[in-house]
Amino acid sequence: MNFVDLLASSELTEGARVVVRAEGRELAVVRVDGIAYAIDNVCPHHHGELGRGDLQGHHLYCPLHAWCFDVRDGKAFFPQGARVECFEVKEEGGRVLARRMLK
Ligand code: FES
Q: Are 83 and 76 in contact (CB under 8 A)?
């Protein structure tokens, strides 16, 4: 599966949360400690936009009811057992690229 171009690396500053539409879906793209991460933007609870929520460390909080997802693997810190899809991210030529992780 090919990587898809998301945005310029310069647009994703430290601590930023950016919602990006790619291949018919929305991703929440963030940068923590210099590393870019991407997870599905849609909260599995009631479809809150994760990319509009607070980012604390690697934890991204849904802005509606504060479910909290780890951007490194998409697993919920709260509540346990919930998760969103997590994407493999790389930066090349000043661009942030992502692709679905192989299962
Ligand atoms: S919609 Fe995300 S926690 Fe409720």
A: yes
Q: Please tell me the total count of domains within the chain.
A: 1
Please write the tens of the pLDDT for every residue from 23-67: 789 999 999 999 999 999 999 999 999 999 999 999 999 999 999
- Structural domain of 13: 4-100
CB 55 within 8 A of CB 30: yes
| Spacing, Cα 1 to ligand 1 middle (Å) | 30
User: What are the backbone angles phi and psi of residue 97, rounded to the nearest 5°?
Assistant: -120, 150
Beta partners for 70? 59
CATH at 59: 2.102.10.10
By alpha-carbon position, which residue is closest to atom 4 of ligand 1?
65
Q: Read off the pLDDT of residues 89-98 as tens digits, 9 standing for 90 and up.
A: 999 999 999 9
How far, in Å, is the centroid of ligand 1 from the Cα of 46? 5
CA of 19 from ligand 1 middle (Å) equals 16
Q: What is the pTM of this model?
A: 0.95
